[in-house]
Amino acid sequence: MRIDIISAVPELLASPFSHSILKRAEERGLLFVKVHDLRPYGVGKNRQIDDYQYGGGAGMVMMCEPLDSLICELKAQRSYDEVIYTTPDGITFNQSVANHLSLKENVIIICGHYKGIDDRIRQIHVTKEISIGDYVLSGGELAAAVLTDAIGRLIPGVLNDESSALLDSFQDDLLAPPIYTRPAEFKGLKVPDVLLSGNDANIDEWRTEMSIQRTRERRPDIFQKFDPA
After folding, report:
1. Is pLDDT of 144 > 90?
2. Gap between the Cα atoms of 70 and 63, Å rounded
3. How far is 64 from 68, CA to CA, in rounded Å?
4. What does the pLDDT read at residue 92?
5. Residue 138, SS3?
6. Shortest CA distance to 179 belongs to which of 157, 200, 203?
7. How far apart are CA 147 and CA 217, in angstroms?
8. For the chain, N or C: smaller number of CB within 10 Å?
């Protein structure tokens, strides 16, 4: 899978993709992430990429020409399954969306900045708009990193144990159950006996019960989807 990220501040994305799981994914040839600096595509000798809003108002807007030039250049090199714009008014990103996107081959992510991008770019190029939550960030770089991490770890072969991703929270509309490791007792708190029993059927049943209980208590909004009755 290839993810091309367009950013006005590419330095913000240097660290998230140079360590841990995403770095190993790239080394294994399973995921290629390329961050593109928008500035060289800017207008005029100063490489301008933003301008004032028509109609007035505070905040600058990312201009059409630089974004269009870079997107068209990328599209001339390969076809893209999705061109994603990270924006507060997009659909809310969740595990289902991550699963869907992990099946794609080539994806562009546009990082918004300032007040956002000229709406004509959304009309011409963007195929999907995604929000990572009901709050506003200084730019879309952190959102792009979240998307890339959540999508990338689902690609077969990225995780050492592929079944791990299938047992994550939200994969079955439930939160994950409590988890434990050694020691079996810590400061008077013991690991549940069932997890030490070696009985796989009982362990699976306990984990399902705990997932349901935790989801009901902590995320009733999700539990309603799991158990609409």
Report:
1. yes
2. 12
3. 6
4. 96
5. coil
6. 203
7. 27
8. C
Tell me the C-alpha distance between 221 and 31, whole Å.
33
**Spatial separation of the C-alpha atoms in residues 107 and 144, rounded to whole Å:** 11
Residue 228 predicted with pLDDT over 80: no
Residue 225 is predicted with a pLDDT of: 75
When pLDDT is averaged across residues 134-154 and rounded to a whole number, the result is: 94
Residues ≥6 apart with Cβ < 8 Å to 151: 1, 3, 98, 101, 102, 107
Map tokens 């005029």 to a residue. Answer: 44
- Per-residue pLDDT, averaged over 127-137, amounts to 95
| Token pair of 104 as six digits | 């794609």
How far is Cα 17 from Cα 168, in angstroms, rounded to an integer? 21
Global pTM value: 0.87
pLDDT surpassing 90 at residue 147: yes
Q: Which residue shows structure tokens 């999700």?
A: 222
Tokens of 19: 């360590």
Which residues lie below 8 Å from residue 130, measured CB to CB, with a gap of 6+?
Answer: 84, 85, 86, 87, 90, 91, 92, 93, 97, 143, 147
Q: Which residue has the tokens 């841990």?
A: 20
The alpha helices in 5-152, defined as continuous H runs, are 20-27, 64-77, 95-101, 119-124, 141-152
Token pair, residue 194, equals: 């069932």
Tell me the residue type at 22: L
> What is d(CA 69, CA 54) in angstroms, rounded to the nearest whole number?
22
Count CB neighbours of 3 within 10 A.
Answer: 24
